[in-house]
Amino acid sequence: MCIKKTTTELFCPKCMEDTAYEITYFEDKISNLLCLKCGKEYCLLDSEDIYFEYIKRLHNRIKTKPKRIREEMKDDLNNSASSMPIRIIKKPFRMLEEYRKIKKL
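Below the sequence we write its predicted structure tokens.
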């Protein structure tokens, strides 16, 4: 899952001038535009679309995880085996953080 934020200058119809905008991307699509001067926000993707896309990608990640772990073990068994317990413990927290980011959009 990839959420990126960037700032650029766009014309704001409310301010009637070019102002700084924060653009939020979900994967490769623009999800939100926010005028940093007046605070007007434009939502281009609704939360259901974002959530559906997240669930679809999460399902694919879960489905391919065993294969990715096998490949990682083949490439570097010592490092993979030593880091695995910590990664298993941290994974639920990383997924919760991911979910919270999705809910903010």
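The helical segments are 47-75, 77-104.
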